[in-house]
Automatic annotation (TrEMBL), chain A:
GO terms for molecular function: ATP binding; ATP hydrolysis activity. SMART domains: AAA. PANTHER family: DIPEPTIDE TRANSPORT ATP-BINDING PROTEIN DPPD, OLIGOPEPTIDE TRANSPORT ATP-BINDING PROTEIN APPD. It is found in: Cell membrane. PROSITE patterns: ABC_TRANSPORTER_1 (PS00211), ABC_TRANSPORTER_2 (PS50893). GO terms for cellular component: plasma membrane. The keyword Ubl conjugation does not apply. Keywords: ATP-binding, Cell membrane, Membrane, Nucleotide-binding, Transport. Belongs to the ABC transporter superfamily. This is Peptide/nickel transport system ATP-binding protein. It is a peripheral membrane protein. SUPFAM superfamilies: P-loop containing nucleoside triphosphate hydrolases (SSF52540).
UniProtKB/TrEMBL annotation, chain B:
It comes from the Bacteria. It is found in: Cell membrane. This is Peptide/nickel transport system permease protein. One of its GO terms (biological process) is transmembrane transport. Keywords: Cell membrane, Membrane, Transmembrane, Transmembrane helix, Transport. The chain crosses the membrane at residues 20-39, 82-105, 117-137, 143-160, 199-224, 244-266. Belongs to the binding-protein-dependent transport system permease family. Residues 78-267 form the ABC transmembrane type-1 domain. InterPro entries: BP-dependent_transpt_permease, MetI-like, MetI-like_sf, OppC_N. It is a multi-pass membrane protein. GO terms for cellular component: plasma membrane. PANTHER family: D,D-DIPEPTIDE TRANSPORT SYSTEM PERMEASE PROTEIN DDPC-RELATED, OLIGOPEPTIDE TRANSPORT SYSTEM PERMEASE PROTEIN APPC.
Automatic annotation (TrEMBL), chain C:
SUPFAM superfamilies: P-loop containing nucleoside triphosphate hydrolases. It comes from Actinoplanes lutulentus. This is Oligopeptide transport system ATP-binding protein. Residues 6-244 form the ABC transporter domain. CDD domains: ABC_NikE_OppD_transporters. GO terms for molecular function: ATP binding; ATP hydrolysis activity. It comes from the Bacteria. One of its GO terms (biological process) is peptide transport.
Length: 312, 281, 267
């Protein structure tokens, strides 16, 4: 299958600081890819850069949506892409919605901007909310965000993102602020709608638990670079990069016998401003050899995946 | 919630103004301090032969009805106007902070009583209250200062209380409380240091307003008395000659406006420096 | 049987018509780690605030070491012997105090170390215990990462040699690898110092790892309490069961099966 979104050598600079350094990523139609990393890894910056949300950052490389390179589009053309072909939902549904506007208007807005009549837009908003499991959707179009719970607000956000029928949905930690039971429902809804409408989903998260159930593929970022990409089966069977292994081992699990201590990755994540020479991860890596501090490893293909590590 | 009794000059935010405001305020302060020594003439020397001279080579900003050099009087008056405004704000701020801190650590009753007292003062417009007090104490610079402190501490106390409450609700203050840090230390080490930034800003902004109020009181005749050089009094003196000798009233008027603007900008500059949430994006 | 150290008895708190907690009773026994779990809005935070005196309950009492927490003397003792670690390490440290001042403050206000030099020496040792070093003494909180800040908060809490540590979601704002480090530090400190820990959390996987017993809160009421084995192996309350069933598992096959079961049972 062909890629709907192909990211090539993406760089994101804030001032003269390189936050994302040469990221390649591909999303095929209907595919669900998780971009995993800890705070400061550049995963959220990547998501925002794909939509060019921050005018003050410099985005380099190419972002191909079909046959257009989003990096070269004008701001006006980009506005048309956002919300129609490339949609995004954010972590905190309570701040991402305008508290003073009715929910129905906010969901219908992307359609209204594109010239759909008020009646049609509202009807489609109600349908979308209904598909997302908002009870009595048609009646609640006139409600305000504060009348909704956190999980319901995230559904409203999703409805606004999906109402124009985008090809790609970027979900930046969409369930981090939600309770587990609500999180599960929201993820199931994203999964279902993406499958029905053939939407490719890029899930940005730090939670490996939800990745296992949701994604087809995983890309792991560390200090602004992709260090590993694999199918979920391969990744969870045993990540190839020591960082991915460390991450997976530090997750406490309810399905395993209790151990004396949780495995940890020693040290703290490096900041993009203080990237060590060679492999960024080598100061924290138990498998590091002298070569790791001298030479940055390149991504090599292993089986169906890719790993950037001298030791594999 | 803070009642604004002070005139507040709102200006657009221009980065260049921010950068200029701090040195400009410093310059005005310097002039206020050394002004009398810069004066080219004796500001109190009456010379009727020189009365109402237009601005020119001998007297750059002209002379008044008594033939006194206006530039010299402006420089001499800078001390009265600017320094006493700062004194007013410092005293009002100290009273306000003490009252608010007492309200904050004294429990609900202390808070209730102190804030109702504030409300009583706030219910009377600041200018009228100050005018009444100054008149009752007898017109003089000292009574103007006292009057303005009395009129100004309540809004300050209100503001400080709001800021203190916000700081007190922060997690680090709660964690200190849970650890058993006593009330006085809690206030001194945790609450006040983290609240003062917005108070500095308010104080700087208030200087600007107080300059206008002080000049207003002098203009009305309850402030500094003749023959002392006071900007408000100078404007009042020039009233009769507005049509014939415009500079007598206009020049000190411009001085008041300019000084008020500079301190207003200084307050804004301070705010954007201290308040990370307003950052320069 | 271990002795009762901290007891909540019938705690109730209402805000207007909204009942935040109702009749919440449980006991933290000496030397154990007790987990207080529930979703947002379950009343976990209100319960903790009532326990430590940040909120006054409408009904119910808190007892410490067999005595009701009433009067200055009782509270004074409690303030020294029970310490707290908060959720947000970015908000819980005074931004204008150095690490030495933050960690040393308890030593100072409780008169444990009266000299500055003595406090500095103690703080250095404490920082070592939580995995920071003496070079950090004079730095301000802003120069630390979330995980390091939480270590500072733990050092501050254990500085006064408390008997009870109350941890309000101490790892939920942290990244996984850092979370694991902090959980290990808490566990080690608890054992080394013989602390009794009340651990408030929503992440049942973390709680399972740390806690001997659990109290499950649902909408302000206790749904169930029991030992770790009872709760995880044989949960009684439907609420506990649904919480446990929703915990994601980082294993695609197991996760698929778990979600399949979830869908079946929803039908």
């Amino acid at each position: 299958m062909t890629a709907v979104l192909r990211v090539e050598n993406l760089t994101v600079d804030v001032g003269n600081l390189r936050i994302v350094d040469g990221l390649d990523l591909e999303l095929r139609a209907g595919e669900r890819v998780a971009l995993v990393g800890e705070s400061g890894s550049g995963k959220s910056m990547t998501a925002r850069a794909l939509l060019r949300l921050d005018p003050s950052v410099t985005v380099g490389g190419q972002v191909w949506l079909g046959d257009r390179d989003l990096v070269t589009l004008s701001e006006k053309q980009m506005q048309r892409v956002r919300g129609t072909e490339l949609a995004m939902v954010f972590q905190d549904p309570s701040t991402a919605l305008n508290p003073l506007r009715r929910v129905g208007d906010q969901v219908a807005e992307p359609l209204r901007i594109r010239g759909v009549s008020r009646r049609d837009a509202r009807r489609r908003a109600a349908e979308m909310l209904d598909r997302l499991g908002v009870p009595r959707a048609a009646e609640r179009l006139n409600a305000y965000p504060h009348e909704f719970s956190g999980g319901m607000r995230q559904r409203v956000m999703l409805a606004a993102a999906l109402i124009t029928g985008p090809r790609v949905l970027i979900a930046d930690e969409p369930t981090t602020a939600l309770d587990v039971r609500v999180q599960e429902k929201v993820l199931a809804l994203i999964e279902q709608l993406a499958a029905e409408d053939g939407i490719a989903v890029l899930l940005i998260t730090h939670d490996l638990g939800i990745v296992a159930g949701f994604a087809d593929r995983v890309a792991v970022m560390y200090a602004g670079r992709k260090v590993e990409e694999n199918s979920v089966e391969t990744f969870f069977a045993g990540p190839s990069h020591p960082y991915g292994r460390g991450l997976l081992n530090s997750v406490p699990r309810v399905d395993r016998a209790l151990t004396e201590r949780l495995d940890t990755i020693p040290g703290t994540a490096v900041k993009p401003s203080a990237r060590p020479p060679g492999c960024s991860f080598h100061p924290r890596c138990s498998a590091a050899v002298s070569r790791c501090s001298a030479e940055a490893p390149v991504l090599v293909t292993i089986g169906s995946g890719q790993v950037a590590c001298h030791e594999v | 919630m803070t009642a604004m009794t002070l005139p507040r000059i709102a200006l657009p935010r221009i980065p260049l103004l921010d950068r200029l405001a701090i040195p400009a305020a410093a310059l005005f302060l310097l002039i206020a301090l050394v002004g009398p020594w810069l004066a080219p003439h004796d500001p109190y020397q009456v010379d009727l032969s020189q009365a109402l001279q237009a601005p020119g080579p001998g007297h750059w900003l002209g002379t008044d009805a008594a033939g006194r050099d206006i530039l010299s009087r402006l420089l001499a008056g800078a001390r009265t106007t600017v320094l006493s405004s700062i004194v007013v704000v410092v005293f009002a701020a100290v009273v306000g902070i003490v009252v608010a801190a007492l309200a904050a650590i004294g429990g609900r009753w202390a808070d209730e009583i102190l804030m109702r007292v504030c409300d009583i003062f706030l219910s009377i417009p600041g200018m009228i209250l100050a005018l009444g007090i100054a008149a009752a104490l007898g017109p003089s610079l000292r009574s103007t200062i006292i009057a303005l402190v009395v009129a100004l501490w309540p809004p300050f106390a209100r503001l400080v209380r709001a800021v203190l409450r916000e700081t007190m609700a922060s997690t680090y203050v709660e964690s200190a409380r849970v650890m058993g840090v006593p009330a006085r230390r809690l206030m001194a080490r945790h609450v006040l240091p983290n609240s003062l930034d917005s108070l500095y800003v308010q104080a700087a902004l208030d200087v600007s307003g107080v300059i206008v109020l002080m000049s207003g009181l002098s203009f009305l005749g309850v402030g500094a008395q003749p023959p002392s050089a006071d900007w408000g009094a100078m404007v009042a003196d020039g009233r009769e000659f507005v049509t014939t000798a415009w500079w007598v009233a206009t020049v000190p008027g411009i001085a008041i406006t300019l000084t008020a603007v500079v301190f207003g900008l200084f307050g804004d500059a301070l705010r954007s420096k201290l308040d990370p949430t307003l950052g320069d994006a | 049987m271990r002795s009762d150290l901290l007891t909540a008895d019938g705690l109730t708190k209402r805000y207007g018509r909204f009942t935040a907690i109702e009749d919440v009773s449980f006991t933290l026994r000496a030397g154990e780690v007790l987990g207080l779990v529930g979703e947002s809005g379950s009343g976990k935070s209100t319960t903790v605030r009532c326990l430590v005196g940040l909120t006054k309950p409408d009904a119910g009492t808190v007892s410490y070491d067999g005595e009701p927490l009433q009067g200055r003397a009782a509270w004074h003792r409690f303030r020294r012997e029970a310490q707290m670690v908060f959720q947000d390490p970015y908000a819980s440290l005074n931004p204008r105090m150095t690490v030495a001042e933050i960690v040393g403050e308890g030593l100072r206000v409780h008169g444990i170390e009266r000299t500055a030099a003595g406090r500095r020496a103690r703080v250095t040792t404490l920082l070592g215990q939580v995995g920071l070093d003496a070079g950090d003494l004079d730095r301000y909180p802003r120069s630390f990462s979330g995980g390091q800040r939480q270590r500072i908060a733990i050092a501050r809490a254990i500085a006064v040699e408390p008997r009870v540590l109350i941890c309000d979601e101490p790892v939920s704002a942290l990244d996984v690898s850092v979370q694991a480090q902090v959980v290990n530090v808490l566990r080690d400190m608890g054992r080394e110092l013989g602390l009794s820990i009340l651990f408030i959390a929503h992440d049942l996987a973390v709680v399972r790892y740390l806690c001997d017993r659990l109290v499950v809160l649902d909408q302000g009421r206790i749904a169930e309490q029991g030992t770790r084995e009872q709760i995880y192996d044989n949960p009684q309350a439907p609420y506990t069961r649904s919480l446990l069933a929703a915990v994601p598992i980082p294993d695609p096959a197991a996760e698929r099966e778990r979600r399949h079961r979830q869908k079946e049972s929803a039908r």
